[in-house]
Amino acid sequence: QAALTQPASVSGSPGQSITISCTGTTSDVGAYKYVSWYQQHPGKAPKVMIYDVSNRPSGVSNRFSGSKSGNTASLTISGLQAEDEADYYCTSYTSSGTYVFGTGTKVTVL
Amino acid sequence: QVQLQESGPGLVKPSETLSLTCTVSYGSINAYYWGWIRQPPGKGLEWIGYISYTGATSYNPSLKSRVTISLDTPNNRFSLRLISVTTADTAVYYCVRVVTGTSNYDYWGQGTLVTVSS
After folding, report:
1. Does the beta-carbon distance from B108 to A45 stay under 8 Å?
2. Does A36 contact B at CB distance below 8 Å?
3. What are the residues whose beta carbons fall under 8 Å from the beta carbon of B78, sequence distance 6 or more?
4. Which of A55, A99, A104 is opposite residue B44, by nearest beta carbon?
5. I want to staple A51 with a disulfide (CB 3.0 to 4.6 A). Which of A36, A65, A77, B15 is the partner?
6. What digits encode the pLDDT tens for the residues B52-94?
7. Contact A48 B60 (CB under 8 A)
């Protein structure tokens, strides 16, 4: 199964909004609502930020939001803060009954 | 607060078997899915597979011939077994909890580095 495609890097200034895309196919992202997003700081375990396309777990800032259109899911971070600088990964359920991760995006706060 | 802790050898020889265990504390194995995800040094995340509380499994097709995930419900733990390892299997291995019926991988272990080297 091929990895989902994410931009290698996205950057923004504090207070700005940025969007990270996650492109798959009609057999994964386009077919299911089971897309989630994870934030990973260096040397740490990933942390779920969004699940099932747009659901935010309790305790996650409402500055994080998710959406999906066709075969592409998106994570938007509004009001960018220094602590948001991290790697972000999407993942999607697939028609094979498995999950596949995205290639990962490094977010830099300028 | 649920806690997951990986344990197992940090060094495995090529062609041998990698075995890891994840112990679940302050929570029950029941009603959730339990999985393994790995991350080679400096690279992205790779989904290995998961097992349901009923024992049903699903594996990454690229690893399916070499991997087994099993449950030890009485002891509240689950395990990963990967046979015939090569240097490409060197990675940080994470155990995770998945909320049934969702894509929410809500609890993660701290990760354990397994190096494949002679």
Report:
1. yes
2. yes
3. B21, B22, B24, B29, B34, B51, B69, B70, B71, B72, B95
4. A104
5. A36
6. 999 999 999 999 999 999 999 999 999 999 999 999 999 999 9
7. no
